[in-house]
Design brief:
The protein is mainly β. Helix content is 12%, strand content 38%. The protein is built from three helices and 14 strands.
């Protein structure tokens, strides 16, 4: 089952777990269900991120065009608060964010399309996040947003004093600077070799 969030291009994929004396079984990926929801590009990379302490924030990350990534994200251990920020120039929801709490025991996933910055905050110790991407990771195309930018006003479920972030993620610029940079990049003439 698909549940559209306040920005409809971002949606939750409800997980179903079957439990018995042996443990549990979950179907974690079904291409036809995602295609019906509007995600029909194949995933090409899968990543597993493990985070020890509660209150660790990763993000807000994105990749610039033409290497933008859509993501299908799930928690396989623990719980996290997942956030997507719309950075699509011209979008009616530009600069808005949506968030959802994902827990391993529910198997619910979130789909984040291209054109969004993505990040998450661990709500438990020993959190493990598994996610598929629609494009390969390219370090030269990576960008990020300041997780605590007042212009975004993200309502993280822990107070800032309980949130830890590494030096790289703490150095991302505010939303206005990122959007200025993306607009300048889009306005540059493309060489014939880049087309």
């Amino acid at each position: 089952m698909i549940e559209r969030l306040a920005i409809p291009d971002v949606f939750l994929v409800a997980g179903v777990q079957h439990r018995d004396a042996r443990g549990s079984f979950s179907e974690t990926y079904r291409a036809e269900a995602l295609a019906e929801a509007g995600c029909d590009r194949p995933f090409v990379q899968e990543n597993l991120a493990r985070t020890g302490p509660k209150g660790m924030l990763r993000g807000l990350h994105f990749q610039r065009e033409p290497f933008a990534q859509e993501k299908l994200i799930q928690v396989v251990a623990g719980a996290m608060f997942d956030v997507a920020v719309d950075i699509r120039p011209g979008s009616p929801t530009l600069g808005r964010w949506v968030g959802a709490t994902l827990r391993a025991e529910t198997s619910t996933q979130i789909f984040v399309p291209c054109g969004f910055a993505h990040g998450y905050l661990t709500l438990t110790e020993d959190c493990a996040v598994l996610y598929k991407t629609g494009a390969y990771y390219r370090p030269d195309a990576e960008g990020g947003l300041a997780w605590n930018d007042p212009a975004l006003a993200i309502d993280w479920p822990l107070p800032a004093s309980q949130i830890s972030v590494n030096a790289r993620d703490a150095s991302w610029p505010p939303f206005a600077d990122v959007m200025r940079g993306l607009s300048e990049l889009a306005a540059r003439p493309r060489s014939p070799a880049a087309v």
